Amino acid sequence: MTLLVSTAYLLGAALLPGLALGGAVEYARQATPTAVGPDHPVFTVPSSADIGKNVIPNINDPLAVDAQDLCPGYLATNVQEESNGFAADLVLAGPPCNVYGTDIESLTLTVTFQDQDRLRVQIQPKYISKENETFFSLPEQLVPRPADLPGTQESDSLLEFHWSNKDTFGFKVQRKDTGHILFSTQGTKVVFENQFFEFKTFLPESYNLYGLGEVVRGFRLGNNLTRTLFAADVGDNVDANIYGSHPVYLDTRYFTKGANGELEYAAEATDKSAEYVSYTHGVYLRNAHAQEVLLRPEGVTWRALGGNIDLYFYNGPSAKDVITAYQHTAVGLPALQQYWTLGFHQCRWGYENWTVLQEVVDNFAKFEIPLETIWADIDYMKGYRNFDNDPIRFPYKEGADFLDRLHANGQHWIPIVDAAIYAPNPENASDAYPTFNRGIEANAFLLNPDGTPYIGAVWPGYTVFPDWVGAVLNGSGAIDWWIEELSLWYDKIKYDGIWIDMSEVASFCVGSCGSGNLTLNPAHPPFELPGEEGNLVLRYPEGFNLTNATEAAAASSAMASQDAAKPTASSTTEPYFRSTPTPGVRNINWPPYAINNFHNDLAVHAVSPNATSHGGYLQYDFHNLNGHQILNATYRALLSVFPGKRPFIIGRSTFAGSGKWAGHWGGDNESLWPFMYFSIPQALSFSLFGIPMFGPDTCGFGGNTDMELCSRWMQLSAFFPFYRNHNILGANPQEPYVWEAVAQATRTAMKVRFELLAWLYTLMVQASLTGDTVMRALSWEFEAEPWLAGADRQFLLGGGILVTPVLEQGMDTVDGVFPGLRTDGKGEVWYDWYNLTEVAGPHVHSILPGQNVTIEAPLGHIPVYQRGGHIIATQDPGMTTKEARQKPWGLRVPLDVHGKAEGKLYLDDGVSLEVEEKTWVTFEANEKGVTAVPEGDYTDKNPLRYVTLLGLQEGPQTVKVQGTKLGKDHWSYDDQAKTLKMMDLEAFFPAGAWKDRVEIMWK
């Protein structure tokens, strides 16, 4: 491999100060004075400050009791029938068990047929009093509930609800047409206490569940997993709770038809000669409390530490039906993104000043790699404080000049904003921080139970935290203050969007550790930052020793020496802490049921559960909504900063509905091969959650990447909606121009991305209008192929592009399946994107339905296929999206097995929130011609230059464009590839390709 940047840059970047994203508790050390930079000695927050109680999760506790064994369950009484459902009381069926709180003696059950394909089941305490005031339906101001469709009758529903009091109350939900039971608690007990509820449902053998995010795992969740939904400041740990909480799942089941025509469940659907049908339904629990979902072979157990059981069942019967209905009714449609956000984004923690940013921008141009946006981690901040640039390294005047050049070139700048606010040192006049002062005046921050400010610790030292819940529910001032701060800052530095981090919300100490300690500010975090002495970034990807043996040996030796120099963790004899319930009292900080939280104690690396909002609301009840509501506030702020424009926000912590305000990146992943793979199931899950603007830290955030991994990853991420490279302080640089091979691989993949860009934008628009998905699981599109149920190493863009990346080190081939093939020759047709030939379909007899095919994929090549029947309008690449949008149009027309194809293209200004001028272009093709019919008033003046027809089995004698016969120098037919190409057509479209109807015919 060849390095393309200077040694000085490589060495300098490893020493730059900055921020560490994620928990990084493995870097903890004892408190000593240290330095953030050579001239600024500061106090270090003690590592002991972030140690909580030694809580043992109940699922790992041999002494934990099973509520199903000890609790009595409930009996239904006083049933009240209504036309759209019924209500009943649920009363304890025996003496209270009080195992993880105080049993609620009387509940209400409300069953509502909300729409023909949607059913609501709500269970909540019957009597609300001061003593149990926390039992509320989640406030609709924070998380709207799906609304009833007026006039819906039970008889209209495609779902049925049945209940019984056999032993104890239980219910089941089933499909009316097939009788299949979708959800059943019968034979189990509903447990409902003041800090705990539990319900169980049986599921069929080898079930297929998806969702229940956010989790780093394969797309199909499996039946041996405990999913914890508790937002955590932590890296991308496999199977653990990380940043977001999405309490929704899809359940897909496959069937064959028996001899009598009845559907028979196919647990092991491996017979590729059989004909299958699938049904998918969805289940959403509208609850924001800490939750735990146990997936086991027999079914699912759902537990939460508060709130109500508020379940919504979506009939489907397809995955698309569930996903679109969920977005339309429950969480809202995704925010429409500006066109430019689909360009390439470059970031790292360690770009130390405006000059370095300019060098990076210039290097992209030098090596002819498109760059849309340069990002800034908190290197730009003065002492890591929001809305305050470092006056030496990132002065406003120099920044204004830099941004003027950037914007003139059609490029953009995105800074990070953290979810905590520095609390200045009251004994140091030079430490004044007006943002904090204005927040205090606005009652914008969380409080201790005694009403004093809650002060934790994050990057700048001791910090306070905006009170989003109090602002929404009590009218305190956090949102208005946030809008003002972002507006005042924009007046100083013209950012183009906002990157929200640390929003779970994170704190590096347990409790209000800064109370009484502000005179120690600013303070260093209680762990060593990457690149600091004793914490050098030395890890490389798996297999690095196979391609870089000498460097790998040196790094391994240095890592061993560094690890040996670290203090050995002493074993603890401290017993596990087990909270026991007190009748009638809630233990807020240590609830009796201990969820399987990554950080153990709920207060570790987080704001404590007893932190209080204005109005008395507790973090215990609202923790999972911090990240959700800061996105809401930021969206409102950017509407003020950029009137009439679509806000661009990428956030870390999300909840059900965050997609209507923001996109999401995959968090603090690692420069390891598995994390490249995990980015695909992450993206597919966020498609389900209604957040299509998703992408990982390409090439990995933590550790050092290498040429091979970064090459493969830059190509894979070129097909994600959000495309960004980002890495950690102290690691080797990983911009794509660092290696010649990565630069070339990136240019290759970006060419395809730019050709697809207008079509990708169309998909994003359709997602924002209808809830349709952009990145799709193969099983969603090909529902009759059960062998695709776990497919997550390939994916689709829309319905028309299939991506099959190499995800393993050292490989030059990859196995993939071409879905939709049939032995009767009536299935799908797939064409190679690069050479235009049919690679799977009726004319390629060597590939069978469901067959895993070995595909050539040498380094620098990512296999991409276009599906027959899906027309795509293309434009040639540019160095920015602005440049690319000025290029002539092309059409790629792949005929399906019937010799037909169709497609859509959406056109607007790519910026406006309320679009006044837009055009939809509808494409249709058959074996005789192609037509394009525009409808709308948006003017695009770019002409049509190319038309390429794939799969035309016989070459034409004549070709006409807009009724005029083309000369032979304007078209050609390849008899081997079965491809008709038309070129240099600009003269036929002087007013633009889509000004009027387009008609291209041949015979």
Q: What is the topology?
A:
Elements: H1 7-13, E1 34-35, E2 41-44, H2 67-70, E3 74-82, E4 85-92, E5 106-115, E6 118-125, E7 159-164, E8 170-175, E9 181-184, E10 191-193, E11 196-202, E12 208-213, E13 225-229, E14 246-257, E15 263-265, E16 276-285, E17 291-296, E18 299-304, E19 309-314, H3 319-331, E20 344-346, H4 354-366, E21 373-376, H5 396-408, E22 412-418, E23 421-422, H6 434-441, E24 456-458, E25 461-464, H7 468-474, H8 478-492, E26 498-501, E27 523-524, H9 544-547, H10 549-565, H11 619-622, H12 626-641, E28 649-651, E29 663-665, H13 673-688, E30 694-695, E31 697-698, H14 707-717, E32 723-725, H15 740-770, E33 775-776, H16 778-781, E34 795-797, E35 801-803, E36 813-817, E37 830-832, E38 838-840, E39 852-856, E40 864-867, E41 872-875, H17 881-884, E42 889-894, E43 901-907, E44 919-926, E45 929-936, E46 944-950, E47 959-961, E48 964-965, E49 971-974, E50 979-982, E51 998-1002
Parallel strand pairs: 2-27, 20-21, 20-32, 21-22, 22-26, 26-28, 28-29, 29-30, 31-32, 42-46
Antiparallel strand pairs: 1-2, 3-4, 4-5, 5-6, 6-19, 7-8, 8-9, 10-11, 11-18, 12-14, 13-17, 14-15, 14-16, 16-19, 17-18, 23-25, 24-25, 33-34, 34-35, 35-40, 36-39, 37-38, 37-40, 41-42, 43-44, 44-45, 45-51, 46-50, 47-48, 47-51, 49-50
Enzyme class: hydrolase
Biased composition (Polar residues): 568-580
InterPro entries: Gal_mutarotase_sf_dom (IPR011013), GH (IPR017853), Glyco_hydro_31_AS (IPR030458), Glyco_hydro_31_C (IPR048395), Glyco_hydro_31_CS (IPR030459), Glyco_hydro_31_TIM (IPR000322), Glyco_hydro_b (IPR013780)
